[in-house]
Amino acid sequence: MTTAGATPPTGLIAILRGLTDAEAPGVGRCLYDAGFRVLEVPLNSPEPLRTISTLRTTLPADCLVGAGTVLTVDQVGHCHEAGAQLIVSPNTNADVIRATVRLELQSFPGAATPSEAFTAIAAGARHVKVFPANQVGIAGLKAWTAVIPREISLIPVGGVDRVDFGAWLGAGATGFGIGSALYTPGISVEILRQRAVSLCTAWGSAIASTRRSA
């Protein structure tokens, strides 16, 4: 069981909006082999619960599978039944966070301000999805870190690509959610593999560079 406060095994979350159940085994294995260990299926994808279940049953145990665009407590329950291990939202909903934590799932609520981040933390979240990241900005995130507890993971999502990893990490980011820069519906497995490997390589380089400059 992955507990609510556990840290994801990688800093990159693959956001697979539009993924179908039929494509899930091939896409999941491609991303896993490239180095991704956290996959998110947004609920506005085709048959998202079935797709989550397929990914969870076909991928190794060290790969976390979660649901995105989760807006209600009922949806949290359905995602849990499907095998989701983390719950990602675009907003800060304390009821959704508390329901997620009660089920011992990881909660990644979206926050665009420090006030929303603190609301999420008070409800039990230990990871905050900084969304939309291009609105908060690198300078904005740097200001957040002056007040947000250090043990809270800050995950920018929205407009972040590999060329930005180093700057975001320097500002206090601890990982990234990657959507259309990685996966788009209908993408070939080979193109997906190229993108995934490039992103994982950039992530590793950015981490190494950040450690050297620390």
Q: What does this molecule look like?
A:
With 214 residues, the protein is of the alpha/beta class. It is built from eight helices and nine strands. It has one domain: TIM Barrel. It has a six-stranded parallel β-sheet. Strands 6-7-8 form a three-stranded parallel β-sheet. Helix 1 runs parallel beside helix 8 (189-213), helix 4 packs parallel to helix 5 and helix 7 (165-171) packs across helix 8 (189-213). The longest helix is centred in the last third of the chain and has 25 residues, at 189-213. It starts with 11 loop residues before the first strand and ends with a helix. The model has no long low-confidence stretch (mean pLDDT 94).
Percent of residues in β-strands:
15-25%
What class, by secondary structure content? alpha/beta
Order of helices and strands: EHEHEHEHEEHEHEHEH
Q: What's the CATH topology name?
A: TIM Barrel
CATH architecture: Alpha-Beta Barrel
| Total beta strands | 9
The biggest beta sheet reads:
6 strands, parallel
- Global mean pLDDT: 94
Radius of gyration: 16 Å
Helix content: 40-55%
Overall tally of domains: 1
Question: Between the first and last Cα atoms, what is the distance in angstroms?
Answer: 34 Å
CATH class: Alpha Beta
SS summary, helix count? 8
Largest sheet strand order: 5-4-3-2-1-9
